[in-house]
Amino acid sequence: MHAIPATSIKVVVAGAYGAGKTTFIRSVADDGVVSTETVPSDDTETKATTTVAMDFGRFAIDAGADTGRVELLLFGIPGQARFDFMWRILAQGALGYVMLVDASDPETWREAVVIDGTLAAGAGLPHVVAVNRAGPGTDLTRLARTLGVDPDVPVVTCDPRDRSSAIEVLLTLFLEIARHTSLQVRAG
Q: Residue 125: what are its φ and ψ, rounded to 5°?
C-alpha cells in the first residue's frame, strides 16, 4: 500500500472583532500559530490585543483511503472594518470559511454580515456559521435568519477555547467543501 500525498485546502476563519477567531485557530492548530496581534490603537477596543493582519495555523484531517491526509491551512482575518482590504486578500484561493458569531453580542452581528458578504461575494464559497457564547436560550434558527444565512449553510455552536468543539466545526466545513467541489471523501 502506498502513501497518498497530503492535499492542502485554504480556509478562512472570519468574524467580527472579539468573536474568537485567534482563540479558535490556537485551540485547533496542530503546531504553532503565526499571529499578528498587537495592542489596540483605539481606546474603545476592549481586548488586550487584536489581530492586525492575520493568524495562521494548520490542522490535518485523515479523509480516508481515497483522499488521504488533508491539511487545512487556517487563515484568521482581522475583525475590524478598517482592515477590510485584508479580508479580500486572505480569501483569495480559499475553498471555504468559518464565520464565527458571538451570540451574546448583537452589536457585532451587523459586522459579521458585512464580512460574510465580502467573503461570499460572487464566490459562493462553502462555509459554516459557528456560534460562540450561545446560552441555553439561544435559538440558532432565529439567529441565522437575523444574519441572513442561507438555509443550506450549517449553523453550529462552538466554543473556540475547546479543541474538540473547534474540530467539529472544521469537520463540518470540510464536508461542505467536499460537497461543493470534486474532493472525494469516503466515510469510514
A: -65, 135
What gap in Å lies between CA 126 and CA 97, rounded to an integer?
Answer: 7
Q: Considering the entire predicted model, what is its pTM?
A: 0.83
Sheet (strand 50-62) strand order: 34-38, 50-62, 69-76, 7-15, 96-102, 127-132, 155-157
* Total residues found in the chain within this entry: 188
- Burial label for 146, CB within 10 Å (0-12, 13-18, 19+), is middle
User: Do the beta carbons of residue 21 and residue 52 sit within 8 Å?
Assistant: no
Amino acid in the structure at residue 171: L
Residue 184 CA neighbour count, 13 Å, CB half: 4
- Residue range 77-135, pLDDT digits in tens: 988 777 777 788 888 889 999 999 999 999 999 999 999 888 876 567 899 999 999 98
